[in-house]
Amino acid sequence: MTNYKTSTVCVQGGYEPKNGEPRVVPIVQSTTFKYESSEQMGNLFDLKESGYFYTRLSNPTNDAVANKICQLEGGVAAILTSSGQAANFYAMMNIASAGDHIISSSAIYGGTYNLIAHTMKQMGIESTFVEPDISPEELEKKFQPNTKLVFGETLSNPSLSVLDIEKFANAAHKHGVPLIVDNTFPTPIFCKPFEWGVDIVTHSTTKYMNGTANSVGGAVVDSGNFDWTKHSDRFPGLTTPDETYHGTVYTESFGKAAYIVKMTTNLMRDLGSIPSPQNAFYLGIGLETLHLRMERHFQNALALAKHLENHPKVSWVSFSGLENDSQHELAEKYLPNGSCGVIAFGVKGGREAAIKFMDSLKLAAIVTHVADSRTCVLHPASTTHRQMNDEELAAAGISQDLVRMSVGIEDIDDIIADVDQALEQ
Ligand SMILES: *Cc1c(COP(=O)(O)O)cnc(C)c1O
């Protein structure tokens, strides 16, 4: 499918049935796969042959959907995980261990912030958070000899700041480490981070990719562009023998697929965050309409943002599609055709007014979720980001009056009418 355009890959990518096979990706709901001889099975375990033997390591349904995402991002290899959290954790853990250091943009999802700042710290991995608008010179100074990667979000959840990908990629590459970017919000419909120098992309497929809020999931995609062997001493897990896999050297045996193969044979084997084939199937169905849905999400969000900009009860609106938005310039470069359906705005009257507004909505539901077909709202300061102190909230770009609205694909007139009546309250 490599020569097809994005919309075609959404519909048909990842799975090409042979003569007489099912037209739709089958749900292979089986833990194990049968073989005639133990020798054959042994070869699979030794990675001498490729094939399915246990669903924790690979499954035909999961692989077909991972392939579709891989093609959409323009990568060389991809893997599905049971959640976006697992995807980000695996993406970093695959190349960092105790005693290492990572640099992350401070404008990231609350769960990822906790993962890096607290859980990975307990595992002995130190981190430095930097403001997304940090100067290239200041960014340079944050690198340490033990820095293993740089992390950011293309379009941050929930603060909606657009990552200056080239700035972060240049700095990372100058110091011989990859840039990992979570591309959950724009999806490959609006941004293909590999084209800007990103090495590894992650996703919470729970959001737009699945699109209907029926299953939690994640994905990691490798561009194949980062040359691990050039920085061999920094990434021994990929470039020296893995004694737990008969001395396999991943970069020698698997070339550009080394990073994802290691993730499968080490992290999936030992930690096991795989999606069920049923959930992978739902994700595959969702991806078939991703291109249509993303366009509508963006159109609706832009219309609502423009409406709120002039509303007397709204103090500010943040949406990169607005021309006077602080992120507009970066968005024009990295997200020229659209960004996502999530907007943020401040309700005049602060925290109390924001909560009153949300409680008065009828069509838009209050849920701990964003980026699905139904319009919904969230007050990050009292929900997803409540573990943060005021300083951390400010660094993540979240104020007490901030309402995050995930604009769905319903009729825009109904969405605007609902917001207007709730603001009246
Ligand atoms: C939701 C989200 C996550 C976490 O994903 P889950 O699927 O909920 O585990 C990570 N990054 C971003 C940008 C998200 O929006």
Can you characterise this structure?
It is a single chain. The protein has 425 residues and is an alpha/beta fold. The chain folds into two domains: 6-285, Type I PLP-dependent aspartate aminotransferase-like (Major domain) (Aspartate Aminotransferase, domain 2, 3-Layer(aba) Sandwich), CATH 3.40.640; 291-424, Alpha-Beta Complex (Aspartate Aminotransferase, domain 1), CATH 3.90.1150. The protein has 17 helices and twelve strands. The chain has helices at 6-12, 38-45, 60-73, 84-93, 110-122, 136-141, 165-174, 187-190, 236-239, 250-254, 258-270, 277-287, 290-309, 328-334, 350-360, 390-395, 412-424; strands spanning 77-81, 101-105, 126-130, 147-153, 179-182, 200-204, 218-222, 314-318, 342-347, 365-366, 376-378, 402-406. A seven-stranded mixed sheet has the order 1-7-6-5-4-2-3, sandwiched between helices. Strand 2 (101-105), helix 5 and strand 3 form a beta-alpha-beta unit. Helix 1 packs antiparallel against helix 3 (60-73), helix 3 (60-73) runs parallel beside helix 12 and helix 15 (350-360) packs across helix 17. The chain is globular. The termini are far apart. 49% of the residues are buried. Bound molecules: pyridoxal-5'-phosphate.
